[in-house]
Amino acid sequence: MKQSLKDELINAIDFPKDALLNLPKITLIGKTHLTVENHRGIVEYLPERVRINSTVGIIRVIGENMVINSIMTEVITITGEIKSVEIVV
Amino acid sequence: MVSIKLWNFLRGYVIIKVEGLAIEKFLNLVMVNEVYIWDVERKNYTTLTAKVSTKAFKEVLQYAKKTGCRVFIVSKKGLPFAVFRLRKRKGIVLGFLLSVLLVYLFSTFIWEIDIKTVNGLKEEEVAKKLSEMGLKSGVSKFKIDINKLEKEFLLNNEEVAWIGINVRGTKAFVKVVGKTKPQKVLSKEEPCNIIAKRDGIIYKMTVLEGEAVKKVGDTVKTGDILISGIIEKPGLDTMFVHADGEVLARTWYEISVEEELKRTRWVKTGEKIVATKIIIGSNTITFTPRKIEFEKFEKEEKNLIPYEAPFKIVKEVYYEVKPEVETVPIEEAKEKGRKKALEELEKVVSPGGKVVNKKEKYEVIDGRILRVTVMAEVLEDIGVKEKISYTGGEGKKID
Predict the structure, then answer these.
(1) Is B142 helix (H, G, I), strand (E, B) or coil?
(2) If B266 and its partner were Cys, which of A41, A50, B75, B321 is the partner (CB 3.0–4.6 Å)?
(3) Which position has the higher pLDDT, B146 or A36?
């Protein structure tokens, strides 16, 4: 592991990892609301499939009648009937 | 969320339709430039609808051009656009404001007066008096001072003990309590006799003032003087006093009550007609499926609008009935007759009287009528005060 020292350090000081490592934070509320913080833009948007770019890979959301509630540089909110969330590297 | 929506509404926004192949690219461009865009919905592969604020719209147009998309405005929403639209239709705004003003104005008047009276005061009279004093339908709420009105009403009306006026909305609720008049009692200084108000045999006598004329065991007739207020003693002037005392006597009562043994009962035949009435003010519109041709019927009314409205819808059901003669069981008639007789007895016996002995007699007349006779022996105060009308001038009044 290349970053092992950095990882260990962060583990030691117990800091929120999404802020320090620039990782996306994916929050799912029930099966209707999904927010992705720290994203890198939308790759694909269809009512049944949304793909969002991030530092760890592409986040693929499968669902039905999905609507992008709001898009901002930091946060994307998706509502609709969400069936699965996967991270495709 | 609600606050954001409200803010968007206040600022005004447009619903846009974006057509093009590189829609994701367009979205990313919008996002990167920190333009707020919301409710993005993909309609099909090449089109998308979204909402964007009026100010950001121009910017969005720019990015669409860059990504080769076309933008159409579907509709304009929000307060600024609504105001703009209304500016062209001043009549509506004016009408709306006028109606609000009218509603407010009319709610400052009293339109209805609801009067409830206690102790036998006439509602119409109270309404008349109140309207003379200023409280009538159509008067402004600001013009009447309720506290003052209540006080004045009490001062002007001797027979009223209490009045409460409550204004709720456009309705004034008035409650008036009348005075219960005390029984006329002879003043303590008035010379009087105590006479018998009923025949009877004196059982006990307590003389507080005056001279006993009768004694215990005497049989008295109605009108006989029991305790005299005129005191005559040899060697002394005749004195007139206010006779007082209690004269308990045995009295007898016989009360007859007749009870029908046959009674007709109205039985529903099952036939019925339902009529609907619409009552607007004093006008009535009636809908009936057919003429009501029943000889005898029972009517059942039901108001379909439970609250108070200017119009009423009443459902009336007419049930055909026919008479049916039935015999009342003798025991039931006896019980009923006895109760009635006892009630009658209670009415005639003076308050405080005690029934000592009681006998009942039942007889059937013609097989149709049951006569119940109650004979009662009662112990009661038979004394009643009667003013002395003295003609002689020799008497001296005692103070």
Answers:
(1) coil
(2) B321
(3) A36
- Nearest residue to B209 (alpha-carbon basis) of B190, B225, B229, B195: B229
Exposure of B84 in the CB half-sphere (CA atoms within 13 A): 9
CA distance B7 to chain A (A): 15
For residue B209, count other CB atoms closer than 10 A to its CB. Answer: 16
Nearest to A68 by CA among B371, B38, B55, B22: B38
Mean pLDDT of chain A: 86
Using the Cβ of B37 and the Cβ atoms of chain A, whether some distance falls under 8 Å is answered with yes
- Dihedral class, residue B29 (left if φ above 0, else alpha if ψ from -120 to 50, else beta): alpha
Q: So where are chain B's domains?
A: 2-83, 109-178, 263-325, 328-383
Total number of domains constituting chain A = 1
B36/A70 CB distance under 8 A = yes
Of A45, A47, A73, the CB nearest to B24: A45
The class level of CATH for B2-83 reads: alpha beta
Which pLDDT belongs to residue B391? 55
pLDDT in tens, A48-86: 999 999 989 999 999 999 999 888 888 999 999 999 999
Residue A55: which CATH number?
2.60.40.2000
CB-defined contacts A:B, below 8 A: 46
Cα gap B93→B74, rounded to integer Å: 26
Tell me whether residues A41 and B36 touch, CB distance under 8 A: no
* Architecture (CATH level 2) of domain B109-178: Roll (3.10)
Residues spanned by the domain of A28? 22-88
pLDDT for the residue numbered B393: 45
- Residue B305 dihedral angles phi and psi, to the nearest 5°: -105, 105
d(CA A51, CA B28): 12
Regions in chain B scoring below 50 on pLDDT:
392-399
Q: For residue B39, which residues of chain A lie inside 8 Å, CB to CB?
A: 67-70
CA A86 to chain centre: 9
Pairing of the two strands B396-397 and B239-240: parallel
Of B31, B42, B48, which has the smallest distance from its Cβ to A72's Cβ?
B31
